[in-house]
Design brief:
With 198 residues, the protein is an all-alpha fold. The chain folds into two domains: 46 residues, Arc Repressor Mutant, subunit A (Orthogonal Bundle); 130 residues, Orthogonal Bundle (Tetracycline Repressor, domain 2). Helix 5 packs antiparallel against helix 6. It has ten helices and no strands. 77% of the residues lie in helices and 0% in strands. It is elongated.
């Protein structure tokens, strides 16, 4: 929506900020009316900026990526010369980001089974992340660092699943490992699994 006036862009940003807070507190099943009320706007005003609840959810998770400049950070990690350090840098970017998005991501994760709009928002972001892991795995193979028996597709799938929000939540939250230990262990074990011996 690049054709928005500065005031319109501020309103849109305010709606997304309020939606993030409300969804983090109550889950993704909140209605557009509830988000509008929390933002002190009419439901119509919210629909001017987001044509549907699904559109709002997708915009919400994409904005989290933009605010953290996550794509630039992934690109920077992919430019690391040494393939082992490249893998670690890429995983570190992602695993440092997960605690930031966890309150809303976990809600989307739980809701996606019976909420098609939450499922679409989740799928949108996970597809983009899986593509990033495929680029990473391809670069590891190019540099001769991908272990034997791994295809690029399978390595990307494994890295994506092994560092997923679900895995992070089980260890960092459910098992109370905390973010730092979870990141450290996942980076080490995923590297050991997919990299060729030095």
């Amino acid at each position: 929506m690049s054709n928005l006036s500065p005031r319109g862009a501020r309103t849109r940003a305010d709606i997304l900020d309020v939606a993030w807070r409300v969804i983090a507190e109550r889950g993704t099943h909140v209605s557009m009316q509830e988000i509008a009320a929390a933002a002190d706007l009419t439901r119509q005003a919210v629909y001017v900026h987001f044509r549907s609840r699904g559109g709002l959810l997708v915009a919400l998770v994409r904005r989290a990526d933009d605010r953290a400049d996550i794509h630039a950070r992934f690109r920077h990690a992919l430019q690391t010369g040494d393939p082992r350090r490249r893998l670690d840098a890429f995983l570190r970017v992602w695993l440092d980001f997960v605690p930031t998005i966890h309150p809303v991501a976990s809600s989307l994760m739980r809701a996606r089974a019976d909420d098609p709009e939450a499922a679409a928002a989740w799928h949108d972001r996970m597809t983009a992340l899986r593509r990033g892991f495929a680029i990473l795995a391809r670069s590891l193979r190019r540099d001769g660092a991908l272990g034997s028996g791994w295809t690029v597709a399978h390595a990307a799938d494994y890295l994506w699943a092994g560092s997923s929000v679900q895995t992070w939540e089980l260890l960092a939250v459910d098992r109370a490992w905390g973010a730092a230990r979870t990141s450290r262990v996942l980076r080490r074990t995923l590297a050991a699994a997919v990299l060729s011996p030095e």
